[in-house]
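Before relying on records like the one below, remember that each one covers exactly one chain. Contacts with other chains, cofactors or solvent are not represented anywhere in the record.
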Amino acid sequence: MEQTNTAPRILVLGASGLTGKAVVQALKTRKETFSIVLASRKKEQVKQWHDEGEHAVYIDLNDARTFPVALKGITRIYLLTGYTVEMIHQSKTLVDAAVDAGVDFIVHLGIFGNGKMTNPHFAWHEMIDSYIKASGIKWSILHPNTFYSQIPVFAPIINGVMQSFIGDKKTGFVAVKDIAEVAALVLAEGPEKHADKHYFLSTENVNIADAAHLLSEVTEKQISYLAHTPADLFAAIESGQFVLPEDREKTYSDSGLGLLQEVYDGRLDSLAVTTNTVSDLLGRPAISLKDWMKENLSLFNLTI
């Protein structure tokens, strides 16, 4: 990939994280002319990237004073958010700084919603979407359904049995790799093709029985399952039997738990759909859950 002084400069927030790293990898496979700038709040990470020959900048989303230097010369931003309620003011102030810096395109990794979501975390994302749209900067919003990688976390295998905490409800899923390749395409092709576009990404619509069946096929071992309720999960957390990921603060975690309740009681039946967006944009089939399981068996607590 050639890089010139007039080529777009794409800033990737969270470039060392799950989706950010995948977006960087996908961008590096694109044939368009642009430069990639990696962003991190960890100065040691920025130094490591520099040592590896990458373009990288330090940015602290809780300190807007770091924004002008980080955004100098940037024309496009991949905006993703962290796992705290701070995502709201962080995104707002970054968008303000992007306007001042002359950024012309923001691609936001949002949520799979209809613009009127009531779950706090989903509502926060929709507020950010609205603020970006009102900023005057051209935008595209990606709306991924649940990541496949959340299945081992929230449908864990305990004592050889896959556990669900949304009963037998179905919901949509998508691979992070597919999200990243869509993001890379949109960032690389830019606002000329993708301004004012919403892209809803949902490849498979499955419940716990479907997931256990697929995992059984992949492992050639019968995987049984139990369909619990959110109330069962809340009790397990209270007793210490189930531990939430440590990188989620309480407000964010409570919102996530509320999301499970909304799926279970039917308020989020709108998530139980699939779309053709990945294949339409990338010109290849989306990654199936079965194929994802084959590549990621190590994430499951299996004894095979």
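The chain has a mean pLDDT of 94.
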